[in-house]
């Protein structure tokens, strides 16, 4: 699969860098990368229609990692049908506890960084993994500093990824968005590794 990287770049936190677990974290995102090529599933070749397909591509680097984080990459439609992209980070680390921010990008490429006034994980809609013992919230209520309210819900009940022959895992899957915007996207939840 080849990726045709076009479109404006989301500079997470406005610069593409932020303080994370006592160090500098960097991430850029390309939410409208066009994939080309094919893949084989059960001995059947599937060709990607690049005119109807796109993918969220990230490049992340840095020397540190927090104990736990949740990341959301969202494709949003406002009531006026304007499209935008939203990258949300929420994490816990040993340096000043819980932190979060959102980077909103318009189709034209303007990046706006907003703090979150609410990032509430549901304790009712959860996945209790029988493989890793991890617990993941499958629904979040989010409020941005500009008053925007979102409800983000996992599209499937179990999207945990576990390394082969391992009990180490993380949650990485598709989500649906409702509230002031509607849309869809991806979510990664990295819990602490149990030793």
Walk me through the topology.
Elements: E1 2-4, E2 10-11, E3 17-20, E4 23-36, E5 38-41, E6 44-47, E7 55-61, E8 68-77, E9 83-93, E10 97-106, E11 111-114, E12 116-121, E13 126-128, E14 135-137, E15 139-144, E16 149-154, E17 160-162, E18 169-179, E19 182-190
Antiparallel strand pairs: 1-4, 2-4, 3-4, 4-7, 5-6, 8-9, 8-19, 9-10, 10-11, 12-15, 13-14, 15-16, 16-18, 17-18, 18-19
Walkthrough of the structure:
The structure is a single chain. The protein contains no helices and 19 strands. β10 (97-106) and β11 form a beta hairpin. The radius of gyration is 17 Å and the shape is globular. The chain starts with a strand and ends in a 5-residue tail after the last strand. The chain has strands at residues 2-4, 10-11, 17-20, 23-36, 38-41, 44-47, 55-61, 68-77, 83-93, 97-106, 111-114, 116-121, 126-128, 135-137, 139-144, 149-154, 160-162, 169-179, 182-190. Strands 8, 9, 10, 11, 12, 15, 16, 17, 18 and 19 form a ten-stranded antiparallel beta sheet that branches. Strands 1, 2, 3, 4 and 7 form a five-stranded antiparallel beta sheet that branches. Strands 5-6 form a two-stranded antiparallel ribbon. By secondary structure, it is mainly β. Helices cover 0% and strands 62% of the residues.
């Amino acid at each position: 699969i080849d990726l045709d990287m076009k479109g404006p770049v989301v500079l997470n936190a406005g610069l593409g860098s932020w303080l994370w677990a006592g160090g500098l974290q960097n991430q850029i995102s390309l939410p409208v990368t066009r994939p080309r090529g094919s893949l084989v599933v059960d001995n059947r070749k599937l060709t990607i229609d690049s005119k109807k397909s796109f993918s969220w591509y990230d490049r992340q680097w840095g020397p540190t990692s927090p104990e736990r984080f949740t990341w959301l990459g969202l494709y949003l439609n406002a009531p006026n049908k304007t499209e935008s992209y939203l990258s949300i980070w929420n994490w816990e680390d040993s340096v000043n506890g819980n932190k979060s921010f959102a980077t909103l990008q318009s189709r034209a490429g303007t990046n706006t960084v907003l703090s979150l006034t609410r990032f509430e994980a549901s304790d009712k809609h959860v996945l209790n993994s029988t493989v890793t013992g991890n617990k993941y919230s499958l629904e979040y209520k989010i409020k941005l500093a500009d008053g925007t309210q979102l409800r983000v819900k996992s599209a499937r009940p179990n999207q945990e990824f576990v390394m082969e022959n391992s009990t180490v895992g993380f949650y990485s899957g598709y989500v649906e968005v409702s509230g002031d915007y509607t849309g869809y996207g991806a979510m990664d939840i990295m819990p602490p590794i149990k030793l």
